[in-house]
Amino acid sequence: MSSVSRKVANVAKGYKTKDGAGVSLLRVIGGPIPSKSVDPFLMLDAFKSENPNDYIAGFPSHPHRGQQTLTYMIDGIMEHKDNKGNKGLLKPGMVQVMNAARGIIHSEMPKQVEGKMFGFQFWLNLAAVDKMSDPWYKDIPAEEIPEVITNDKKVRVVAGHYEGVEGIVKGLRVNPIFLDVTLSPNTKFSVDVPDFDHNSFVYVFEGEGKFGPEGYEKVVGDQHIGVLENKDRVTINDNEITPNKLDAVAGENGVRFLFLSAKPLREPIVQHGPFVMNTQKEIQQAFFDYQMGRF
């Protein structure tokens, strides 16, 4: 049985919205891409602006329960504070991981009054057995993220594995692959998808590229997501093939994109704002616990 790249099932651009105290962003997963189609990824927000009015109000103190958050900065500086005594600066190239679990109250505020603010925040679901685990927080400096570099590509291995290199981020319960890939013009790239059951996607944030098997590629451009098919067998040119990787080719001006992949949890999801649980009763309990100061 031969192998082939997964096809791109859907290409979309995020919805413009505001969150926090008025931060302008694109909501991608949880916007045009419903979270159930990319389980266990609950949300992807992309924020990018050189206008301080778009980000200066930040995200004042607010609660979370039932998920893990991962923030990846490209430009700008944000400060994290939470009610567990954690504090840290999130700088260009850094990653921040927060296990909200049974409850945490935190703020994310810009530490600059001008310049570009550019980054991404992901919410990853927690399995029911982990939703009431202990909360924790970790900053990972940019220089600690391993990179695979050749003449025509650079791959930052944030989580998972690529070409024998293990990512720096540990403790994410859904064990995702998270790569930041930069390709020179017309460069080819391939990465394994470890299980046909994984939900996978790319998010392009510079240039454009073609993704998928030869003859079935789709172009994904700047600020667009490409959600990959999730099938154990596909038919290409009358042959039954296992789609167990992703192939990409950079456009004429190169491309930079994020690749994420993880096995779905397939559990009920009930979400209300920053609370993500399995039942409505658990959501009501989350509100009660927060109001009673139990976070």
Automatic annotation (TrEMBL):
Stored Gene3D superfamilies: Jelly Rolls
Gene Ontology molecular functions: metal ion binding
Listed cofactors: Fe cation
Coiled coil (UniProt feature): none
Keywords: Iron, Metal-binding
Designated name of the protein: Pirin family protein
Binding site for Fe cation: H62, H64, H106, E108
SUPFAM superfamilies on file: RmlC-like cupins
Domain of life per record: Eukaryota
Signal peptide annotation: none
CDD domains: cupin_pirin_C, cupin_pirin_N
Domain Pirin C-terminal: 179-295
One Pfam family here: Pirin_C
Membership in a protein family: Belongs to the pirin family.
Free-text cofactor note: Binds 1 Fe cation per subunit.
Domain Pirin N-terminal: 33-124
